[in-house]
Amino acid sequence: MIRFLVLLIFMFLYIPIVYVVASSFIDGGEITTKWFVKLFEDRDIVRSFYNSLSIALLSTLFSVILGSFAAYAFLKTNKRFESLFYTPIVIPEITEALSLLLFYRLLSFPLGFYSVLLGHIAFNIAFVFIIVNARLSSQLRSIEDASLTLGADEVQTFLRVTVPIAMPGIIAASLIAFTLSWDNFIKTVFTTGPGFQTLPLLIWSQAARGVVSPSLNALTTLMLFVSLFLAYLYAKISTKRE
Amino acid sequence: MEGFAVELDGVSKSYSNFEAVRDIKLKIRRGEFFSILGPSGSGKTTILRLIAGLLYPDKGSIRLMGKDVTFVPAYKRNVGMVFQDLALFPHLNVFENVAYGLKVRKTPEEEIKRKVKECLEIVNLDPEKFGKRKINQLSGGQQQRVAIARALAIEPSVLLLDEPLGSLDLKLRQHMMSELKRIQKTVKTTFVYVTHDQSEALIMSDRIAVINQGSLEQIGTPAEIYENPATKFVAEFIGEMNFIPAEVYNGGLISEIGYIKVSNLNGAKRVLVAIRPEKIKIGCRNLDNVYNAVVEEVAYVGGFLSVKARINDFCLKCLTSSDLRVEENQKVELGWRADDAIIFEA
Amino acid sequence: MRHFLALPAIIYLLVLFYLPFLITLLYSFGFPGFTLKHYSEILDPLYLKVFINSLILASITTVLCFILAYPLSYYIALKAGKWKNFLLLLVILPFWISFLLRTYAIMTLLTPLGLMFTFPAVVIGMVYDYLPFMILPLYASLERVGRSQIEASYVLGAKPSQTFLKITLPLSKSGIFAGVLLVFIPALGEFVVPTMLGGTYATIGTITWDLFLRYHNWWKGSALSVVYMALVLLAITIYIKRSERIEL
After folding, report:
1. What pLDDT shows up at residue B22?
2. Which of A112, B180, B333, C173 lies 20 to 30 Å from B105 when distance is taken between CA atoms?
3. Contact indicator for B158, B191 with CB cutoff of 8 Å
4. In total, how many domains does chain A have?
């Protein structure tokens, strides 16, 4: 009985995804890749693709640097400041997004690439902090001390000991930050301006009207594969670490 | 060897809200196995970190091998340190861990290989078998050995050990104690060993410094510290001790158990008479102090009897050979020589 | 000294996360002036209906997610054996896919079924999106229950049903609470699913969207958002208080 129920629930979770992927390869009963070819011929889509990619890459880069340094600085020592990084994660995204919009409006900050990027970095910092912080052991301090007593100065210690030990956590955090930014919709839609569109916004602009189309299926499939590829990398790194 | 490996002169160190160590004066001889013994939180690790250069003192000066290093950073001191949590590099294998200090010194590759092999052999780890292992593939005892080898590889002027045996079980601990002693005899380096475990300190050390609440209580050989504790704290902290409160009366002492004859009084009015359990003889009459007592409790502790005996209402712990036959509620005579008691101001 | 390395990140968050919230609060009181009228307008029957709509949708979503997630989590935690890691992977994988894509995916199925723009479509979409958020905390708490407590209960003579009611369920309470919170709070403000699948079904999320992006009524939108935030903070505070008590 319970097994049947479990099976049903997993079918519920996965059939829609499989259905989208399958239908993006089908045209009138035949298997085809023409929907994907069409995607790359559509200038709007290609531009949005580059926009998504550059926002995701840049926000990952900056948030990983800022968030990792913060995690390293606290290293499970200061609970009071830590909560500063937890709030952005428990707060519903929509309230964060509209606050940012008001902030930009008040400063007359032009809405577009930079406003979206700055917003993405903000919430990614919080995620990076928490992931890196969770993976850095509090033993790191004495490991660094050991390196100092063995004759390595602060810079050598940081490069030869701290960075390599923190690396798996940083890579994991980068993957998650990239994913969150890559398919973020709510913060992007609130903080973007005319002329700047990412792939999720493109999907929304058509799907919000309830329109299902083969090219939209293909675009969704494409994004899905990127997400799953990132998830795969993440799993690979996590298991290697053990 | 002549001279001192480590000299601390009037060293104090405070953290934001408390004074960790206060006015420490220490001279550790070259080639010595020196222990710093004290309860947890007494400041002994702080002293070690000050010697290592991981902390700088607020007051006082530190000399290593005769040179002032008070504010020299750790990486320029050439001091080996074995950490409480070992602090091995988890991303490096055994060989790379031991070679680390030599690598950052830009030692030639051949020399590194030779030195690492030598150090692993000193700590009884087969370089062929263990060199390529990851740290997490080693047992606790093996990790210990790698940590020691890593610290020795840089040929340190002193080797600092911060309770390195704390995490091991009793059997392994005893084994590692004799190993440490053997290693020290082999490399002839000065060892400074921090511990809260008196038996570790007594067994291994040439000399011991007892620390309490950031201050030095006594420095001496294990025998000196055990036989002639300088303060009440040392007497209480090391080994077992009976304390009998007493008042000076007529060149001797009067107490709850009666008159106590002692050999030397230091002028105080109210005192504590300290007497080790094994100095109390049961069933002997030709002693300076003899009392009638009732046996309360007898426990057999491998070759010895631990006896609790009551004189009036005062309870004394005695340790005696298990040849002696005593039973609970038995009336016995017990006593000690006046020379065996130590007097502290109350 | 090392703490200064955190300064850039902290300043960044203060400026681009915390300060904006302060501004929202200001706007809700009629910035640059001061008035309470935006809050009183929210109490208007029209908005009250939206609140009730959202509450209904979030409640139904939470209850359905719980009903589906509990047996699933129970199975993975205690019965799955060698399949455990694989099933867990299937639960975690959806976390890597955004709501937008997953909602679109279920839309492609609802369209041929002729369910689009109905209340059931919204509910199905909500459950589809939020189910993993209920499964994971439930699984984590049931995992901690472990077999030995359950076996101890059997040995002491309890029937399976009694064991479940007296041992398993109470022990997974913290997971239930976390799961309910993780689903209910964001579901309350959800706007992707109602917009895409429900057409005109109004919730706090869709109204907020309209006030900001369609009518540019920053002030009323801010007031609505502040009320929503207050609800969220209240729930989180209760959660923290509760989990502290459970740990004791």
Report:
1. 92
2. B180
3. yes
4. 1
Q: Which domains does chain C have, with CATH numbers?
A: 35-247 (1.10.3720.10)
Per-residue confidence at C199, pLDDT binned at 50, 70, 90? Answer: confident
Find out whether the peptide bond into B164 is cis, omega within 30 degrees of 0. no
Residue at A35 is within a domain: no
Token digits of residue A153: 């100065």
Q: Locate the DSSP E strands across A162-223.
A: none
Q: Residues of A with CB below 8 A from B151's CB?
A: 149-150
From the list C137, C143, C124, the residue with the least C-alpha distance to C79 is C143
Domain-located, residue A179: yes
Nearest to A146 among B76, B81, B105 (CB): B81
Helix (H) or strand (E) segment spanning residue A40: helix A34-41
- Report, as an integer, the average pLDDT of A181-188: 93
Within 8 A by CB and 6+ apart from C131, the residues are A9, A12, A13, C65, C68, C69
Cβ atoms within 10 Å, residue A145:
20
User: Cα C236 to the chain's mean position, in Å?
Assistant: 11
> Judged by CB atoms within 8 Å, which residues 310-339 of B form the interface with A?
none
Question: What local confidence, expressed as pLDDT, does residue A138 receive?
Answer: 77
Split at pLDDT 50, 70, 90, the class of C164 is: confident
Which of B78, B83, B151 has its CB closest to that of A145? B83
When CB atoms are compared, the residue of B85, B100, B105 closest to A142 is B85
In a domain, A178, yes or no: yes
Chains within contact range of chain C (3+ C-beta pairs < 8 Å): A
Rounded CA separation A192/A206 (Å): 17
pLDDT at A82: 79
The closest CB to that of C100, out of A5, A9, A183, belongs to A183
CATH number at residue A96: 1.10.3720.10
Domains delineated in chain B: 4-236 (3.40.50.300), 240-345 (2.40.50.100)
Q: List CB contacts (< 8 A) between A12 and chain C.
A: 68, 128, 131
C219 token code pair: 């002030």
CA-based torsion, B34, B37, B43, B46: positive or negative = positive
Quick one: average pLDDT of A50-76? 93
A164: nearest CA partner in chain B? B91
> Residue B100 and residue A147: Cβ atoms within 8 Å?
yes
Touching check for C195 and chain A: CB below 8 Å?
yes
Residue range C97-114, pLDDT digits in tens: 989 999 999 999 998 888
Residue A24 half-sphere exposure toward CB, CA atoms < 13 A: 25
Residues 158-177, chain A, touching C (beta carbon < 8 A): none
Cβ <8 Å between B87 and A142: yes
For residue A8, the tally of other CB atoms under 10 A from its CB is 12
Residue B288's SS3 state is: coil
Give the pLDDT of residue C22: 94
Q: What are phi and psi of B265, to 5 degrees?
A: -110, 140
Whether the CB of B284 is below 8 Å from some CB of chain A: the reply is: no
Answer yes or no: do C96 and A227 touch at CB < 8 A.
Answer: yes
Distance from CA of C155 to the nearest CA of A (A): 24
How close, in Å, is residue A210 to chain B by CA atoms?
52
Q: What is the mean pLDDT of residues C57-76?
A: 95
| Shortest CA gap A126–chain B (Å) | 26
| Cβ-based contacts under 8 A for chains A and B | 73
Within a domain: residue A5? no
Q: Do C16 and A119 touch (CB under 8 A)?
A: yes
Residues of chain B with pLDDT under 50: 1
Q: Indicate the residue type of B72.
A: V
Domain hosting A144: range is 46-241
The ipTM assigned to this model is: 0.92
